[in-house]
Amino acid sequence: MLNLQSKFGQKLLTISNWIAALVTINLVWFLINLPVLVMLILAISLPLNQLFAMTMVIVTVMLATFTVPATTAAYQTVRTWQMTDSGSFLRATGMAYLKALMHWQPNALIAVLASGWLILLRVTTANIMWHVATLVVGLVLLTLWNGWNYSQFTTTSMVELVVAHPVKLILSAVTTIILFAINFELRLIFCILLFSMSLSALATYRIFNPRVKVTEDKQVTN
Predict the structure, then answer these.
(1) Which spans are transmembrane here (predicted)?
(2) Mean pLDDT, to the nearest integer, of 210-221?
(3) pLDDT tens digits along 136-195
(4) How many CA atoms lie within 13 A of 24 on its CB side?
(5) How far apart are CA 126 and CA 97, in angstroms?
């Protein structure tokens, strides 16, 4: 029988709680974004015509209503989790989403930029040079978006983050891309359900706030 009071049991319990927090936060994010994912799949399957344009208008509204505030909520809950190491993550993520939903102006702007990039990505498919350029623009936009999400809960503005920590922000964006690419390249679709967004938010938080290991024999001097 496993003894949870032992050193191994405590580590196992910590890991279990860590996984449970990631999955809970990500599950709320996924459920909120499920209509957006369905609409995006529909848009991808359509030819470039009037119906595609109408679908992308709907996608833009849904991004502003679901994806952008839900992502901000995931970042906020991850930060709360890392600072307190406890909490009701299901309720916390839901409440953070409702709060972020009220910021309709930045949500709408980000949604329009994201939707415009998706359209440009689709239009430039036949031209390799323009398609690569579009991908680079996407990396820049994702970098700025991650910076904006992180800056919502710190005293540092997004502009200050971009100027002071461009490498960290790019690393954050690359990590996000890798975590979401796993779902498609390795056909591990369940990852987007379990931890893609929450782990991306955690990675961003840890890039800017690395844990400092303190050894037991470290002496503090005045």
Answers:
(1) 12-45, 51-75, 96-122, 128-147, 159-181, 187-208
(2) 47
(3) 999 999 999 999 999 988 888 889 999 999 999 999 999 999 988 887 766 667 778 888
(4) 18
(5) 38
Domain that holds residue 105: 8-207
Taking the CB of residue 213, how many other CB atoms lie within 10 A of it?
A: 6
68-84 vs 128-151: helix crossing angle, rounded to 10 = 50
The answer to whether residue 3 sits within a structural domain is no
CA 152 – CA 186 distance, rounded (Å):
33
**Reported pTM:** 0.87
- Assign residue 187 a region: left if phi > 0, alpha if psi is -120 to 50, beta otherwise? left
The answer to the question of residue 112 being in a domain is yes
Domain total in the chain? 1
